[in-house]
Amino acid sequence: MKWYICAMSDRELLEEFISYTGGIRQLSQNTQKAYSRNLEEFFEFLQMYNNSLSDFTVYDARLFSKYLRDECENSERSILQKLTTVRTFFAFLMKREIVKDNPFDAVSLKRRAQRLPSVLSESEVKELLSIERNTFLDERDHMLFLFLYNTGARISEALSVNINMIDFSERRIRIKGKGGKTRFIFLSPYTIKALKNYINLRAEYVESKGVVDDGALFISSRAKRLPFSSAHIIFTDYQTRLGWQKEFTPHTLRHSFATHLLERGADIRVVQELLGHESISTTQIYTHVARPRLKKVYNDAHPHA
């Protein structure tokens, strides 16, 4: 029986766990449905990260927690529920002797107070995009930074883009975002010009590696689609190079995109559409970020301030 269970696929293990919660633990149907939804999201992360249950580590668990917070923009309550579900799932796998330990035991399940997102100033964005570029990978990093800041896309959305998805004449890309919902992200003329130059350099790099071109816009040193984990390593590396103490992640550029738009007078509902937020309440956090700077602009510029 143990051999049979170990031979089961990750998907079959998920189905057995849901059956276990209803049969042995006798949880309600609503709880079972919630567990199933939460684990589907976890399995999407596994697929995106090209990972499996047997290879999942504490590092991956922490990355998943960050993914829920940044990429999926969940509330702290929702993050707690999802992490608890996956932790329970791994406890089930431990009982079945499919995994040796529970990687989520090392991840804090305490709710954290909501904090304002880290945002770059316009001068810091300029500093980031002005870093000298000497190799193709430097060019790729620059293009990734420019793309995220110019579009407000999530890192998972950016990494899913293929070159043939780019509509150069309309300066837009149709992407599939959170929850499978599609929307357009838009590109400035400057970014379009930079993209065309980058794509030419990319083609030369792929050819030099002698591999089959999979069409991904952002590629790794091996000329394959850039993994989610590698993107975060890139940001950590540049944070160190620039000597920044503030948090700098792919989502920092998304936060900066939204904040700078609002500071320059964009309507919050337009920003909501550009970010792909289902609820405007999610977008409203950026009004709190922009408010101190708006007050400074008022004090500096208004004759009666």
Number of helices: 14
Q: Largest sheet at a glance?
A: 3 strands, antiparallel
| Class derived from helix and strand content | mainly alpha
Provide mean pLDDT, rounded.
Answer: 85
| Principal-axes shape call | globular
Question: Percent of residues in beta strands?
Answer: under 5%
Strand order of the largest sheet: 1-2-3
Report the order of strands and helices: HHHHHHHHEEEHHHHHH
Notes on the structure:
By secondary structure, this protein is mainly alpha-helical. Helices cover 59% and strands 4% of the residues. The chain has 14 helices and three strands. The chain has helices spanning 2-6, 10-23, 29-48, 58-71, 76-95, 122-129, 136-151, 155-159, 189-209, 228-242, 250-263, 268-275, 280-283, 285-301, and strands at 166-167, 172-176, 182-186. Strands 1-2-3 form a three-stranded antiparallel beta sheet. A hairpin with a 5-residue loop joins β2 and β3 (182-186). α3 (29-48) packs across α5 and α7 (136-151) packs across α11. The longest helix is centred in the middle third of the chain and has 21 residues, at 189-209. The chain starts with a helix and ends with a helix. 25% of the residues are buried.
